[in-house]
Structures are given as C-alpha cells and as structure tokens.
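#struct-help
A.M.: can someone run this one for me? Single chain, 431 residues.
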Amino acid sequence: MRSVYAKILAWSLVTLFISMTLLFVISRQIEMHLGAEALFRHLQTLVLEQTVQAWETGGQRGAADFIARSNRVLGWQDYVLDAKGRELSTGVDRSALAARLNGHWGQVIPNPGGLLFGTRTTDGRYMLVVEAQSSFTPWIFVIFDGLILLNVAVLAWPLAFHIGSPLRALARTVERFGQGDLSIRARSARRDEIGNLAKSFDRMADRIETLMTAERRLLQDVSHELRSPLARLSFATELVATEPDRDKALQRIRKEVSRLSTLVGSLIEMTRAEGDPAAGQRKDFPLDELIGDLVEDCAVEASARGCRIAYARGEKIALTGDPELIRRAIENVVRNAIRYAPEGSVVRVQAEMDGGCAQVQVADSGPGVPDEEIGRIFQPFYRVDDSRTTATGGVGLGLAIAMRAVKLHNGSIEAKNLRPGLLVVIRLPVS
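D.P.: on it. Structure tokens below:
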C-alpha cells in the first residue's frame, strides 16, 4: 500500500474483525456456561427431592445410598440437611456450611477452590448444599476482557511501529542535519506519505548542501584570491603620493580595480552556476545559432589580439537547457583559446552531432598545457605558470565555470594537446 491512510484503515478493520470474532467465541462460552448453570440448578433441585424421598422411605441408609450414587455420577459433593443443619445420610452437623451461603438460596456463589450452591424445599424442612469444583469464576470476565484488550494491543503494535519507527528515524536525521551534518540523508524505500516526506527531505538536503557548499567555496576562493590584488592595490595607492607620474599610478590602480571586478564577477558567476541551477531557464534552443552569435561577439577580441576565429557550422542542432549557461561555458573556452593563440593564428570552432550528443570543439595553436597538468586546468584558480603574465591576464576561473555549467546539463568537457595548441571538447546530451 502506498497510503498511510489505507494502511491504518485496513489494519483497523482487521483488528476489529479479529476482536469481534474473539468476543463472539467468548460470549458463546459464557452463554454455554450460563445455560449449564441453569441446568445445574434444576438438577440439584431434583437431587434434593429424590434424597428427601429416599430418607422418608428408606431412612438414613436410603438417603446415604442415594447421595453416594449422586456424588459419584455428578462429580461433586452434595449435602442434604434437615432444618437444623444435620446431614440426613450421616447425621453430621453441617450448619456451618449452610451458614456460608448467607441466605443466597438458589444462587451460585464463589467458594475457595470452586463454587457453593444451596437450595431448599418449599416448606423449609430440608435443604441441599453443594460444593463443586469449577474454574469459571467472576474473574473469568476480567480475563476475557483482558484477552480482547491484549489482542487489540498486539495487533495495533506492528502498525504503530510501522508508522512511528520511520518518523523517529526521520526526526533523528533532521536533528543531525540541523546540527551541521549536511551529508546525512533519510534514504527511505517506502512509497507512502512517509516515504514521500523522507524523499522530499533528501531533495531539500541536497539543495541546501549544494548551496552551502557553493557559498563556502565562494568565501574560500574570495579570501584566497583577493589577497594578491588587494596587496597590489594597496601598494599602488601608496605610490600615488610619491610617484611623480600620477597618471601612471592611477592607471595601475584602475587596472587592479578592473582585475578585482573581473575576479568577483567570475566567482559569483561560478557560484551561481553550481549552487543555483534552478535559477536558470531550461528551454529548447538552436545550439548552432548560439555558437554563431558567440563567435561574432568574440571576433573583435580575437582581432585585437592579432588572431581570428573560424567557425565550421554544420547541421542544425537543437538542445534543451539553460542557453545562458551554455553560452557562458562555450564563450569561456573560446576566450581562453583566444588568450593563448599566437598572433596570426586561427582559433577553430566546430559543432556537430556525435551519436546522441552535441559535440563542440575549440582548438587553438598556442603553447598547450603540460601533459601532467592537463587534468587540472578545469580546477578553479589553476593557471599554468607561463600564463601568469600581464599580457594574458585571467584569474583561472573560465574553464572551471565552463566545466560546472556543462556538468549541470549532464555533459562532459575534456582537453588534449594538439602540439601545437590545445583542443577542448564539450559534449552535451541532446535529449
């Protein structure tokens, strides 16, 4: 069952059915006992009349023989007494036994080890006292009621455990998550409302962990990367007071401010791409046209660096995703290629279908990357030592942003050396 309501209803119906069945059986037993008790009364009245008749016709011996046969057949002890409490068959005084009836003639009353019953003739001359062994006492009703309650409790416990146990586990998970353990998850296999609640918590926890991890990474990255530009900016500010050429000092300050602005913007963009993918718009768009517009925008920058971009547009490619993130990812790769392309060279961009994926290739003729370090170029703030120059600039975030944007679309990105140059391949699933 996938509904807690259905489980509770079904379990309650089963419990009610079993309890009603048990109650019916118990009622039948009580009814049979009460019927046997009425028969017992009539039978003892008959024993009394027959014993009196045997006494009147055969005397003490006749009464003794009849009582002996009656006790042997019926299985209990009968005492037939005269008005003074003496037993007709033996003459023994049984007045104390009769007194224990306390006037409750014709009623079955509890007696140690069994039951006590007494009846007498209409003229009051003779009376019968019976001591019978019986396991049925008024306490049996308490036992029967206890059995019904126990049955309900036993049947209700699995349901309570089935519902309460996962809720307690979920509460412990939420408490641990609230204490800072962001990796904890409910991971429930249930398919009812409780399972849906646990799965909703897991999705929420994944989202919060992603956002908090991105936020921590942003703070760490900012604190790490702002040290050098801030130090240079502070030094440039001090030079304004002593530098003869103030325009040169101010130009250096503007340059450092520009670098800081670029750095912060890149950090925020990377954090948004990784930590808030839901903020983007997923829709269908033509990838080939997006790359064509991007290449036109980057052509000015390429021309300023003395190189050009060649885009080999192939078949039309339709993609589903966030077009802005995809544009930023490909643009970062293209700008990275332009930054390291030698003067007079060509940056080649190509888009084509490869199986069920759209494949975008960006190749330059630059110095490439050492083979042992090519796997690290997609890490934030990683830059090859030779690229740490004023001419190339950059803060080492372009390819990291591209990788995270591509992964958000379940794609892949890799690089390999062409000798000369570097080839970056982006693969994005079409469906």
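A.M.: thanks! The radius of gyration is 49 Å.
D.P.: also worth noting: The chain has three domains: 4-137, 142-225, 281-429.
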